[in-house]
Amino acid sequence: MRTRDIPLKPMRSVDPDEDKKIGRSLSCYTRNMEVVWHGEFNRLCQHFFPHRWYLSPYLGRPLNYQWYTFTDCAKVRFLCKFCDHGWTSMKGRVVFNFQFNESSLTGIVFFRLFGQKCQRCTPETFEHAMWYPEEVIKVIGNLFNRIGQEYYGFYRPCVRVDRRPGKPQAKHNKECCQACAESKNMFPEWHDLHR
User: Does a structural domain hold residue 77?
Assistant: First the structure.
């Protein structure tokens, strides 16, 4: 039986205005962003009932061709653990790989967050991005709509590209960006997103 043949309760794509209200109410979770990532994912994916969807970080290489891939950008913050230099980037990157198993009626989403190197002390390691709650809500909403499009017959909704306000003080440094460095070989379609 195909996913689209299973009767489901009526669904809608994510309303951007609703997301903004929720983003403001979730600002208290900035210390524990895992709660925001999983909470928003579970809140939205409950609309896929009776199917169950799971979200898990993925640190390895991209998955094989049988997985759908969705890439999104957001404004994120970084803090160097060596020199305490802090900066924001409008090019924070997340990659989602997702797949639905029709025999178990479950879906899995692996996600990967990318870091940046400090431009002051240029260490060899990438710093982890600190995500703002409203940016997490935006990218999870975009992911929900993409899953709905691929498996549940959603029309092709617009991807939200708005970002938290800010004026970058410098241009994006591709040499210090993990997503840019890895995109050349693994994700050639990213080059359009980084212009």
Answer: yes
* Sequence-distant contacts of 10-16: CB under 8 A, at least 24 apart: 11/47, 11/48, 11/148, 11/152, 11/154, 12/47, 13/144, 13/145, 13/148, 13/154, 13/155, 13/157, 14/44, 14/141, 14/142, 14/144, 14/145, 14/157, 16/141, 16/160, 16/162
Considering its fold, how many domains does the chain have in total? 1
The dihedral sign for the CA sequence 57, 107, 194, 131: negative
Please report whether residue 7 resides in a domain. no
What's the pTM?
0.77
DSSP state of 124: S
The token duo for 26 is: 């979730």
Residue 3 forms part of a structural domain: no
**pLDDT tens across 82-141, in order?**
999 999 999 899 999 999 999 999 999 999 999 999 999 877 899 999 999 999 999 999
Task: Report CA-CA distances (Å) from 56 to 20, 39, 46.
Answer: 24, 13, 16
Residue 22, classed as helix, strand or coil, is helix
* Cβ-based neighbour number of residue 69 at 10 Å: 15
**Which structural domain range is residue 178 located in?**
12-160+172-192
* Token pair 């692996």: residue: 110
Residue 99 lies in a domain: yes
